[in-house]
Amino acid sequence: MKKNLHSYVLSSSFVVVILIVWEIGARVYNRSFILPTPTDILWKLWELRSVLLFVHLPATVSVMAIGLIASIIIGIALAVWMNRSKVAEKTFYPIIIVSQTIPIIALAPIFVVWFGYSIWSKVVVTFLITFFPITVSTFDGLRSSSKELKELLLTMGASKKDIFFKLDVPTALPSFFSGLKVAVTFSVIGAAIGEWLGAQAGLGYFSRRMMTQFDGASVFAPIVLLSLVGILLFLLVSGLEKICLKWRR
After folding, report:
1. How far apart are CA 49 and CA 57, in angstroms?
2. Total domain count, the chain
3. Are the CB atoms for 74 and 247 separated by under 8 Å?
4. Which of 46, 48, 142, 188 has the fewest beta carbons under 10 Å from its own?
């Protein structure tokens, strides 16, 4: 507990030092449309709270939620299938790996052409970014279950269903949550990229629109809010992980 508190103090102190240096440097540079001060950003965040919180934040969260839910459902299903079938593993695993070599930001404009400025172009971008860590981590977790324990359960008369739910799933849960923690932070990036390239609402869209008005503080304000959303989602998944994995203690 003391070690964790000590690490939080160190990281918080480092962030405070960066913010102080940023504040002083931005005031000396005196080009707020390029580099606003942290206090200007916070003030702008408060000033725009109604628009950001009740108009653009719900649009971004909707994209993130749909993309993440689709990634979790399809990713887990594909991981289980690849674990059960060598044919599925040899067919889909290389495709999943290769898909990560394609820059999503290069494909995002194509999705805008296909789906227009609707929510689905952003959902596809979010899905493609979050799908990989969930699928691969879950698959690796399922594959790491003990063969000795599996043989022991078989000799005791366990069925394949018993082995899956009582051995494979508990073994894969830590890996799944590790992938999910990566995915929730990536979902923020995916939603922002999609909104930057084409949207009618959302925090990424608002930030891009403010760039055309040379309002630096208004550009950074939704980015700060996006970062806070990512941190909250990460903490939420971490809390859920502790609840689901109490047995590990």
Report:
1. 10
2. 1
3. no
4. 46
Nearest residue to 33 via CA among 224, 216, 163: 216
- The Cα–Cα gap between 99 and 233 comes to 25
| C-beta atoms surrounding 152 within 10 Å | 12
pLDDT, tens digit (0-9, with 9 covering 90-100), for 69-83: 999 999 999 999 999
Kindly report the CATH number assigned to the domain that includes residue 154: 1.10.3720.10
**Which amino acid belongs to residue 38?**
P
Instruction: Establish if 33 belongs to a structural domain.
Output: no
Q: Is 74 domain-assigned?
A: yes
Provide the pLDDT for residue 34. 79
Please state, for a pLDDT cut of 70, what percent of the chain lies above it: 96
CA within 13 Å, CB half, 104: 23
Rg (CA), the chain: 22
Whether residue 123 is predicted with pLDDT greater than 80 in this model: the reply is: yes
Contact 79, 93 (CB under 8 A): no
Residue 157 has a pLDDT of 79
List pLDDT tens digits, range 24-35: 888 888 877 778
Taking Cα atoms as reference points, which of 212, 213, 216 lies closest to residue 34? Answer: 216
Question: How far is it, in rounded angstroms, from Cα 91 to Cα 80?
Answer: 14
Residue 30 lies in a domain: no
Q: Domain range holding 103?
A: 48-248
